[in-house]
Task: structure prediction
Amino acid sequence: QDILTPEERLWLDQQPVIRFAPAPNFPPVEFFNEDNEYQGITADFIKIIDQQLNLGQKLEIVQLKDWGEVMSEGRSRGIDMWGAAEKTVARSQYMQFTEPYIRLPAVIIVRQEFAGDGIEALVGKKVVGIENYASYEHLQENYPQLNALGVPDIEAGLRMVSYGAADAIVANNAAAIYYIEKNGLTNLKVIGESGFEWNLRFAVRDDWAPLLSIMQKSLDSITALQKRDIYRYWINLDSSDSWKFTKDYMLIAMAGALVVIVLVLFGWGWRKRAAVNMQRLTQRIEEQKKIEEELKNLATTDELTGTYNRRAILEIAQTDYQKCLDEGQPFSVLLIDIDHFKQVNDQYGHEVGDRVIRAIVNVCSDILKVKKIGHIGRIGGEEFVVLLPMIDQTEAHSVAEQLRQCVEKEPIQCIENTWYSATVSVGLASLEHSEKFDELLNRADMAMYQAKKSGRNRVAVSHELVAG
Ligand SMILES: Nc1nc2c(ncn2[C@@H]2O[C@H](COP(=O)(O)OP(=O)(O)OP(=O)(O)O)[C@@H](O)[C@H]2O)c(=O)[nH]1
Result:
C-alpha cells in the first residue's frame, strides 16, 4: 500500500532526479568510505526510504568535498536534499526540514592538563569549531567572548587541541571518539557539553514542498524495530568491513551512537545518558593512555633488573649529553662491569647470578636516587652504564668510588648460609672536548678494561689513561 497521496506520487513520478548530498565525513552519522560508498546511520535510513518510495534511479547520491560545499551547492540549487542537517535560520532561507531523527550533543574537548569545567572555563581561550557546522554558528552567536576559530573538519581541530595549537574544540562526541582513536590523541578529555545539541533532520530545497511531506511520511513509517536494526547493524559491524574503524572504536562509538539513537527514539532521559557518554569518552581516553604508558615502560625497561634497558639508556644519554654539550655543562659516564661473574654462575647457578645482578643494580640505583643524580641502565649481561649529566670528573670519581665500595660491602645471599660479596670494575670518562657520546662511552669502556687489567674492584679514569 502506497503511503503517499496520489498528488504526492504524481509529483514524485514527475521528478527525473533528486540530487542528495550527504555530509561526506560525519561518522557514524554519514560518510563515504574508502571505496566512496555512502555509509552510516543516515545511509541506512535512506535505504529504507528508497525502498518504501521506490525512488530507484531518481535518487542521485552526490559526493561533495566537505560540508561547506554541501551547503553552498544547496544555496545555488545544485542539490535538492540533505540527510543529516541541523535546522538554522540561515538554512531555512533555502531548505525545509523534517522532524529530527538523530540527536547528538556537542561536547567540549580539551587537553588533559586543562583546568576547569564547562563552557565558562573557555573565556579568553582559543576554541575551535567546525566551519559551516551549526555547532560553530551556535558558539559564535552565544559566546562572543570566546576566541573562536573555524577549522575545516573535526580531525584537524582535534589535532590542533592535542598539539597545543588551540585550547579546546567543540564537536559531537560520537565523531570525536572516532578521530581521537584514529589519530591516537591520548592527551584529550571532555569537560562538558557546549549547550548545543544536533537535532539532525532530512532537509529538502524550500521550493519542493511535496518532497518534504513525502520524506516526513516515509520517516514516520519506519518502525521502531527497523530503527533498532539500524543501530544493531552498526554495533555488530566487523572491523574488516568497509567502515575501517578499529574494533574498539566500533564498540565505543557505536555504543555511544546506540545510546544516542535509542534514547532519542524512545524518548528517555537523554541528558543523563549524555553525561554517561562523556564520562565514557574521558574514561576511554584515560585507559588508552595507561595502556600506552605500560607499553612504553615495557619497551624501555630491562626485564631482569627493572632499570632502563640498553636502548632506553642510550636514548636518554643522547639527549642529556647533547644538552650538556650545548650548554657548556660537564657530563660524565661510568661503565660498570661485575668482576669474575662467570664464576658466580658456574659455582652457584644462573639463578643466583641473576640475583647478584639485581642486587648490584639496586645498590647503585639507591645511591643515585639518594644523591638525586644520574640514571643507570643495563647495556649488556653484567655491564651497566651510569649517566651523570652536570657532573664533572672529580665529582663523578667520588660517585664511582661510592658505588664500588657499596657494592663490595653488600652481602648477597647465594644459598642458605652462604653470602657472596661481589665487586665491580668501573671505567669513568668525562666530557673534555666536543666529542660524540659514543666516543665518550668508548673511553669509559677502555677505562673499565684498564680497571680489570690492573686488578679489578677499582675505578679507572679515561683522562688518566690518555695522560699517562
Ligand atoms: N646469571 C646471568 N649471567 C649472565 C647474564 N648475562 C651474562 N651472564 C654471564 O656473565 C658472564 C660474563 O663472563 P665474562 O665476560 O667472562 O666476565 P667475568 O667472568 O665477569 O670476568 P671479568 O669481567 O673479566 O671480571 C658469562 O658467564 C655470562 O654467561 C644474565 O643475565 N644472568
Residues 310-467 form a domain with the Alpha-Beta Plaits fold (CATH 3.30.70.270).
